[in-house]
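step=encode ok
step=design start
structure_in=
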C-alpha cells in the first residue's frame, strides 16, 4: 500500500529510539538522518524534506523532549505534528458559491484521474443532497466525452456534452454552455472536466486557463497521480503558474506508490489537499484529513476514518448502540460476529483492518487475510452457547475443546478468535471513551 515502505522505515527508526532513555544530541541526529533518508527514498521533494527534518531536529533537541517522561514518544509526537503541517495542517472543505451553481473545474495531466474523479465527486456531493452536473470539456482525448457519460451514469447524475459528430468542438464554449445549462436546469454544482496531456505543455495550459477565465470557477482542483514520484513538484508548479488552482486532489493513493507527491504538493504550492482518491471504483474516494493521513503514515491508525466508514454502512442508531456497548464493556461475541458480517458487506475488510493502529506490523497477516475467515468465525461462534457468547470469560479449556469439535476447527482457532475479540473490545473501548489507542509496545502517545 501507499506509504508502506515509508511507514516501515519510520517505525524502525522509532523502535531504535525506544531503547534509549534520555536522548543525546547524537541520538537525535541519528534519528533525523534516518527520517531524512526514508523520506527521500519515498520520493518526497528535497526542499520539503529539508524543512521537515530541520523543524523536527530543532524541536527534538529542545526542552519539550528533554523534560518529557518518555523522550522517544515525544519525538514521535513531534514527527506527527510536523507531518500534519506539511500535509496542510487543518482539513480544508470544498467551498460553495453563495449564489449557486458552484462551479468546480478539474485540471491535471492526462491519466491523472480527472474523469474518474468527476464521477466520484458527483456521487459524493449527490450523497450530501446536492444536484451536480458534469460538463465534458475534455475534447482532446477521443473517448473522454463518452467516458464522462459513463461515470455520470454510474453516479446517477446529469451530464452536459457537445453533440457528437459536430466535428472538433470548442472546449471553452462547451464549458460556458454547460454552466448556463446548469443554471437553467437549477443544478447547484457544475463539475467541469478538462483535457490533459501526457506532459505539461503550453497549449494545455492555455486551454485550461481560457476555460478558467470563461467560467470563473469557485474551486479549481488540481488532480495529481500519487505515483508520479519526483515529477510531482514540477508538475504542480507548472499548473500553479499556468492555471492556478485552489485545491489539490491526490489520486491513486491505493497504488504501490512511494507517496512522495502526497507529501510534497501541499507544502510546495501552499494549496490544500481537499480529497484523496483510493481506487478505480466511484466510492473509493474520501475527504482528505492531514491529521488522519499523518497517523496512517506513522501507523498510529486511522480510527476516525474507520469509524466514519462504519457509520456510513450502519445506521447511526446502530453505531451509537455499538459505541455504548464498547464503552460499558457489554460488547459480546454475538455483536462481534454481527460486526464482522457488516464489515464484509462494506467491502474490503483488508482496507478497514489496514486503518487500525499497529496494523502495519500485521501486514503479512492482512495480506494473507482470507475473507473465508468470517465463515470460520461464524462456525466457531455458532458452536457456543448463548451464555458463552455473552460472557466469553466462561470459555475454559473444556468448553473450548467442545466448541472446536462442534465447529470442526482446532482449539488453537478458538483461542485465536477469543484473543482477537478481546483485543478488539479493549481497543474499541479506549476509542469509545475518547482515548487514543496505544502504539503496540510504546504506550499511549
Ligand atoms: P484523466 O485522463 O485524468 O481523466 O484520467 P482517468 O480518470 O481516465 O483515469 C486514468 C486511469 O486511472 C483510469 O484507468 C482510472 O480507472 C484510473 N484511476 C483513476 N483514479 C484512480 C485511483 O484512485 N486509483 C486507481 N488505482 N486507479 C485510478
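sequence_out=
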Amino acid at each position: 500500500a501507499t506509504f508502506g515502505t515509508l511507514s516501515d522505515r519510520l517505525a524502525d527508526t522509532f523502535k531504535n529510539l525506544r531503547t534509549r532513555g534520555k536522548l543525546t544530541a547524537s541520538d537525535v541526529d541519528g534519528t533525523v538522518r534516518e527520517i531524512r533518508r526514508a523520506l527521500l527514498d519515498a520520493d518526497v521533494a528535497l526542499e520539503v524534506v529539508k524543512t521537515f527534518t530541520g523543524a523536527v531536529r530543532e524541536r527534538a533537541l529542545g526542552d519539550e523532549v528533554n523534560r518529557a517522561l518518555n523522550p522517544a514518544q515525544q519525538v514521535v509526537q513531534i514527527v506527527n505534528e510536523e507531518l500534519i503541517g506539511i500535509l496542510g495542517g487543518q482539513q480544508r472543505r470544498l467551498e460553495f458559491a453563495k449564489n449557486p451553481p458552484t462551479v468546480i473545474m478539474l485540471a491535471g495531466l492526462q491519466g491523472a484521474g480527472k474523469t474518474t474523479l468527476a464521477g466520484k465527486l458527483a456521487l459524493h456531493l449527490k450523497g450530501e443532497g446536492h444536484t451536480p452536473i458534469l460538463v465534458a470539456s475534455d475534447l482532446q482525448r477521443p473517448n473522454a466525452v463518452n467516458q464522462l457519460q459513463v461515470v455520470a451514469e454510474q453516479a446517477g447524475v446529469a451530464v452536459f456534452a457537445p453533440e457528437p459528430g459536430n466535428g472538433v468542438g470548442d472546449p471553452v464554449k462547451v464549458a460556458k454552455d454547460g454552466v448556463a445549462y446548469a443554471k437553467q436546469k437549477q443544478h447547484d454544482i457544475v463539475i467541469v472536466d478538462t483535457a490533459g496531456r501526457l506532459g505539461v505543455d503550453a497549449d494545455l495550459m492555455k486551454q485550461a486557463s481560457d476555460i478558467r477565465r470563461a467560467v470563473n470557477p469557485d474551486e479549481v482542483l488540481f488532480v495529481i497521480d500519487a505515483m508520479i514520484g519526483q515529477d510531482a513538484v514540477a508538475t504542480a508548479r507548472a499548473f500553479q503558474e499556468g492555471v492556478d488552482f485552489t485545491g489539490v486532489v491526490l489520486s491513486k493513493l491505493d497504488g504501490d506508490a512511494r507517496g512522495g507527491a502526497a507529501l510534497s504538493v501541499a507544502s510546495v504550492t501552499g494549496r490544500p489537499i481537499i480529497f484523496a482518491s483510493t481506487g478505480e471504483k466511484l466510492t473509493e474516494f474520501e475527504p482528505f484529513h492531514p491529521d488522519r493521513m499523518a497517523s496512517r503514515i506513522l501507523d498510529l491508525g486511522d480510527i476516525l476514518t474507520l469509524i466514519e466508514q462504519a457509520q456510513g454502512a450502519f445506521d447511526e442508531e446502530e453505531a451509537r448502540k455499538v459505541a455504548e456497548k464498547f464503552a460499558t464493556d457489554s460488547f459480546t461475541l454475538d455483536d462481534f460476529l454481527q460486526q464482522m458480517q457488516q464489515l464484509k458487506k462494506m467491502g474490503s475488510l483488508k482496507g478497514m483492518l489496514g486503518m487500525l493502529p499497529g496494523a502495519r506490523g500485521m501486514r503479512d497477516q492482512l495480506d494473507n487475510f482470507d475473507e473465508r475467515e468470517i465463515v470460520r468465525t461464524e462456525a466457531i461462534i455458532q458452536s457456543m452457547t448463548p451464555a458463552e457468547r455473552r460472557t466469553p470469560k466462561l470459555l475454559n479449556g473444556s468448553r473450548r475443546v467442545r466448541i472446536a469439535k462442534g465447529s470442526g476447527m482446532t482449539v488453537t482457532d478458538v483461542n485465536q478468535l477469543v484473543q482477537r475479540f478481546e483485543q478488539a473490545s479493549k481497543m474499541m473501548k479506549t476509542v469509545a471513551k475518547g482515548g487514543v489507542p496505544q502504539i503496540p509496545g510504546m504506550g499511549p502517545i
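step=design ok
step=annotate ok -> The longest strand covers residues 219-225.
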